Amino acid sequence: MGAILEQADALQDTDHARSMPLLALLNREAARLTPDQQWHLRYLDAWEAMYESDYPKSEALFRDIMRHAGNPAWADRASALLLWQLVVTRRYPEAFELADRLAARLPQATDAKARFAMLLNLSVSLAVAGQPDLAVRYARMALAEAPAGKGSCYSADSLVVALSSGHRLTFDSPELQQAIHACAAAKLPVFSTDLQLTVGDLYLYEGKPRKALALLDQIASAIDADGYIPNKLEAMVQRARALAAIGDDDAARKAALAVVAMQATGDWPRDAYELLYRIEKKQGHASAALDNYEKYVVLDNAYLDDVNVRTVAYETVQQHVLLQKLQTESLSRQNALLRMRQQLDAKTAETNRLYLALLLMALASAAVWMFRLKRSQLRFKKLSHLDGLTAIFNRQHFMGEVGRTLHLLERRAGTACLVFIDLDHFKRINDTYGHAMGDEVLRQVVVASRQHLRQVDLFGRLGGEEFGILLVECSRGQGMAIAERIRLAVEAMVVECEGAVIAISASVGLAFTDACGHDLQRLCREADAALYRAKRSGRNRVVADIENNGLIEA
Ligand SMILES: Nc1nc2c(ncn2[C@@H]2O[C@H](COP(=O)(O)OP(=O)(O)OP(=O)(O)O)[C@@H](O)[C@H]2O)c(=O)[nH]1
Q1: What is the DSSP letter of 386?
Q2: Complex confidence, ipTM
Q3: Reduced to 3 states, what is the DSSP secondary structure of residue 407?
Q4: Beta bridge partners of 495
Q5: pLDDT digits (tens, 9 = 90+) for 471-528
Q6: 283 and 276 in contact (C-beta within 8 Å)?
Q7: Which numbered atom of ligand 1 lies nearest the CA of 439?
Q8: Is there a contact between 389 and 463 (Cβ–Cβ < 8 Å)?
Q9: Residue 430 CB contacts under 8 Å (≥ 6 apart), including other chains
Q10: Start-to-end CA span in the chain (Å)
Q11: Is there an atom of ligand 1 within 6 Å of 387 CB?
């Protein structure tokens, strides 16, 4: 069935008579066709209806195919033929709107047959619309894409029509000769003859009536054989014009009257009446001339009206299309603007997020930096409070802390005991064992003393081999006992150097708040005095003041 379908398609415009039984057969067996083949058949039916001038039927079929055929090739071919039908039936606005849609669709159309039909009919419709440049452009595209055989004839012919609509042809134009050869080769005699008649028309236009007559004689038998009435009428009109041009008025009148007698529509009767008018006028037959002139004017006006209608229709469609394009452009500009704004918003949000992240990072690193700074400040501060050798309070800090503590104790009537410790004959240790050994002794004295102190007690190095201790909330008896334990601990220290045990002892002086009050200066003075006394009375002992007027010795 597929092969029959293709055969019917191929024969339809070349051997119409043979295509008809095939088409009838296909319609009878339509149920056996695939859905795509059924659309193909519908297209051939539409073509047939158009061929038989049943335009309502063909239009309905074309539009059905355009809307519902799944395969775009059928929709494109149907659109191309509907365009031609709309031009032929002079529905120019619809035709030119469809032409516009087809032109826009063209880049997407891929089926070769559909593209070719679109190009051909676009060229024809634009020639009718008075747009020769566009018509020539599409005709040249059709020529370039034409399938071999009849396709070359159709496209070459459409190029001739397009060029002719723009008055760009002469009788020896190569496009004209090329078209005549292509149609002769494709065995499309009606087209060949039509093109020969175009040459004849150009002979007449260019003042070569005898050449026109010779050509008409040459193709007369072919025209009779074809039986194609439009060609026959054209040949008759041209012969009448040629005869008039060479002055054979009688023969010209006869030929023109023969055209009128055919009662055809179109340009031929108009041309015939115009010729008759000129002949009658030339021969002084005023009344006949006027009669023919009136008939000529009526037909010419109709022709001019039609040209006018075509031009206006084309312009209207173009304006309409332009307006739609402008609206679409304006909408897409608005959309683009909206998109840009959205992108900008997104970018701004992203930038803000980045700034925030950057800010947080900066804050975090500042916090880390501050924390480190603070920590190192605290470390330095702590270090600045300590003695470098023994890691107990240095003199300055010790004195500050003692002063603060005494102040607090004074406010709550607490007691304290200030203890000054000085190592005995320390110079000798240095001199005998070296300064490093002396340092080691100092460190060990601190370790030994600390074991007898509580957390709340303050311990500092006052300088050289002298230490200070504030025993907080401490009675006189407790203070004496602690001082004594420290002295014993120092005495008991075993520090060896090169096998020799270093003898170490300390003298201790104490001052108590219950006797001296909470004044730091005074307490220091009293403790110092007690220490001095301890030294003077033989060293390695604990001495305390007794209410400033006596000393007790542990
Ligand atoms: N190794 C060491 N020696 C120090 C340090 N500070 C001070 N000295 C020494 O301690 C010694 C103190 O000597 P003196 O003031 O004469 O006292 P002393 O020899 O202990 O005699 P008395 O106190 O009278 O028993 C000096 O030789 C100082 O150089 C130190 O940090 N390390």
Answers
A1: B
A2: 0.97
A3: helix
A4: 502
A5: 999 999 999 999 999 999 999 998 988 888 899 999 999 999 998 899 999 999 999 9
A6: no
A7: 1
A8: no
A9: 437, 438
A10: 138
A11: no
